[in-house]
Amino acid sequence: MHKIWMVVDPRRSLFLAMVGVIAVSGLLHIVVLSSPRYCDHWGWCATPATFTPGQPVGVMR
């Protein structure tokens, strides 16, 4: 194992691994937050409401 670390710089490889993890986690956060479940929570991609408050909800049969 020590021969591998003599060829590969551990600081550079750990830094690139950290950047990769941060990039993947950021991408996953963007995908989840732009899903319909969480989109209206933040309001940055919300569509206008199709109902008015207090209006009775139809029952599905």
UniProtKB/TrEMBL annotation:
<feature type="domain" description="Antenna complex alpha/beta subunit">
    <location>
        <begin position="1"/>
        <end position="35"/>
    </location>
</feature>
<feature type="transmembrane region" description="Helical">
    <location>
        <begin position="12"/>
        <end position="32"/>
    </location>
</feature>
<protein>
    <submittedName>
        <fullName>Light-harvesting antenna LH1, alpha subunit</fullName>
    </submittedName>
</protein>
<keyword id="KW-0812">Transmembrane</keyword>
<dbReference type="InterPro" id="IPR000066">
    <property type="entry name" value="Antenna_a/b"/>
</dbReference>
<dbReference type="InterPro" id="IPR018332">
    <property type="entry name" value="Antenna_alpha"/>
</dbReference>
<dbReference type="Pfam" id="PF00556">
    <property type="entry name" value="LHC"/>
</dbReference>
<keyword id="KW-1133">Transmembrane helix</keyword>
<keyword id="KW-0472">Membrane</keyword>
